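Hi C.,

You asked whether I'd gotten around to modeling the 193-residue construct. I have! Everything is below, sequence then structure, no commentary in between.
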Amino acid sequence: NQQERPSSTAWLDRIQSDLGNWVAGFVDGEGSFNVPIRRERDRGLPWRVSLSFNVSQIGAEAPGLLREIFGTGTVRGRGDGVFYFEVTKPTDIKERVFPFFDRFQLRSPKRNDLAVFRTITELVLSGRHLSASGIEEALFLRGPMNRGGKRRRSDGEIIAALREWESSEAICRAPSMKQRDEDMVHTSWRHGD
């Protein structure tokens, strides 16, 4: 007697349509899909592509309910009484956030942000964001999101830092490549090549 495996959407099937539609409307008004590009100091690249689906509200009740409904994410509060529900893990975004909004669709222009966010999430899940060109692609894609909202650093500043980093990386690699080429010459000379 083989047991049935639970459906990957079993959690979604348990959400009543009136509650799911309420959440979609709430997110239409108070939620956002963001792709912050953060300064990175302890890894190879100078910037890191991050993902964030978040909803903020005064009081913890609604963000807590969202945490319960999605079954993932975090709720955190600020000193002024505003609480945030946030999902940042790419796999949780793909497995929970996207299926939810496939079933309970957004109605505002925010649905366009969701479409771009989905594309950038796939870029991250593929690992392309771990290269300078992948970061530039993410920057290009996120441009129209959130009506081009205010950002701490301009895309131009980030791209300039990436180009500078690429140049310095090439310079740093050059001596080791030169040494490798010299070693190959000495090895082939000893073998009579």
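If it helps when you're writing up: The helical segments are 10-13, 17-30, 61-70, 90-103, 110-126, 132-142, 155-190.

Thanks,
B.
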